[in-house]
Amino acid sequence: MDNVTEKVQPLSMEVNLRNMVKALFENSHASSEKGMLRWNLHNKVQSHPSCTVALVRKLVKQLQKCIDKLQMCESHVHVIPILHTLYYVVLQSPVVIPVKLYQSMYGCLMRLLILPLPHSAVALSTVKSIRTELFTPGSLYHRRVIAEQSLKNDHVNLQERVFLLADPELFSDPLEATMRADLEVSSSLRDPLVLKRKVVLRLLQLGLGSFCHSPTIQQALESLGEQSLEAIFQETVLAVEQGVQKGPEGWRDYIDHLQMIYTQVLTSCDKAIGYENNTVYPITMPYPEINFILWNDEEDLWNALTTFTLRSSFDIDDKSQRASVQSKNLKELNKGPPQIPQRSMSNLSKRRNAFKDTKPGNQLSLMDEKMESSSTISSSSREQRSHTARIVVMGDDRILGKLASAYCSIREKESKHIRLTKKINLQFYYIPVTDVEASVPLQPNTTEQARLSIASFLGKVDSWYDVNINILQSAMPRTAGMQNTNHNKPSEQNLFFLDTLNYYLRCGIQKVNLPLYKVMMTRSNEVSSVIEEVFVSSLEADVAEFKHLKDKSAKSYNRRKRSVEVFGGVMSVSYTQVFVSKREQLKGVCPMACSAVITSEPSVTHGEGYLGVRFNSVNLEENTKIFTKTISIKAMENRTLVVCLDKDFRRTYSNIQRIEVSPYVDPGCNIRTRFSMSITKDLPLSKYVDKILSLPINTFSGVTS
What we know:
The protein is α+β, with helices and mostly antiparallel strands. The protein is 50% helix and 18% strand.
């Protein structure tokens, strides 16, 4: 009877996995259902490690079906979702995946490299990850956890920090409290000693396979003291980094190194260990450290990045001092037991205290000092940019406009003196949020829907973003309504959000470049009063005298024909018309309108895009629209404009007579050009051409610019 049960359970698991994989990559299911299916599928790997190999096999078969359809010139819309799902299962897998299955994966992925962008780019990234895991098993999880948790070591300096910036207009007090409580619960699970035991055990399980007796090694690791565990952890980091650098040629050395570590753990244990049946422990991936910020002031982002840069600079300095102390101790090993240099420790203590007492106003000078000192430690760009700041903004078009403004401000500061980007790699993510309840669908052409124009564009460009991220846009109000009274454990809904966020952070590495536009606004009767701003989604310019008529025109005009024809104010408009041949022609018009709406129209295939300009008249039949890259609008007849950027009432400017809109030129181009021309004369001409600045938002597929 027991044998029959053992056969039935794997069979039912196989059928369940097959049905889930089939449903996930079928067009008959809605996006919201697919997002939940993806989450449940990855949860199975965590809760039932034994099904991992079967799941990988199903995904490989699904990928092979996609390749067969490609040969018949059918759609390849499911290629990128399968690749990301496959990669994440391999990253999560606590069990050894057979070499033959890896080889099947590798063969399928290599066949996808002939696809056009962005499919080939995602396939290439997946190929590199699978190849790394094949020859250094366990390295993907090991390196990811070290980077996300900023676990200090002497061999690789990888640190990541997640900054979650939320729009206070959309986050109520209960929602903010719920979010902070869940993040605090997840942060309480990140004890450094526990994490080091987990990464060591996970690496030995995957690297040694059946030769690793998991219950025994777990007991041994738990009995180790802090110093012994630290030494073992440092050895695992060294083994992984050497294995990754050597590649296939270093596979045998890598396995031998892990075997040595395994033996070292057992011999270092001073307690008796009871031997149990060898079972694989399902070690889950911990949540990264997330800083939640209600984004009120634009400078909050700069200050947070500055603090992160300073901390990472001190870590490099600490690492350098530890290395020098270790080197000195090795040289003096024969003279007696090593002594701790009191002077170095006192200096280190002073520096740490100085960092704690540093005020934001003094951070720039301190950062300059640390940059100069850190540059003497390592001159390689790999070491300089080994830290990553993952900036996640939550809101609608308004917060993206704020992010665009902050990003341009950072680029302006960096063009004068490189501080942040010399040390930190900036990655931007966007999670759309609306204050409309999930049970109320967003209607087209409504204010709420209009404020999610960029989220809609990203969903059209990247179907997997639409499936996993766009479905979160109305989940926040529901989360506040389902606030969990037991803060010791996040609710299932909040776990879904946190898990989806981590999935986005780990797999969303392809960028969609949203073009940025600079607007120069001249106030009426004040020639010298010029306001410089930037927008990413839209600019609305209303003629002040006719602003109240614009809201009524759509209703009144459809009911009855107006007895008095009022079209609006005269605007003097000059713009550059761009033809298919990329030839440009300067044109001018004088429409009579009550408002002008300028919207960014990003290109699906590249990051340049264009502007769509609609002139709204009170008479709807007189509405006109043009497409351009640059435009100048001037209010005539002593009238003025009220300008609103990115639908954000907090960025509204009145008494404007003239606006000039053009693509935003990267302020860093000039300084790089001067530097390049001073050291070489044979660079390509493109190096000296001004580059249009775009806001790079990470997605699952991306669009090549």
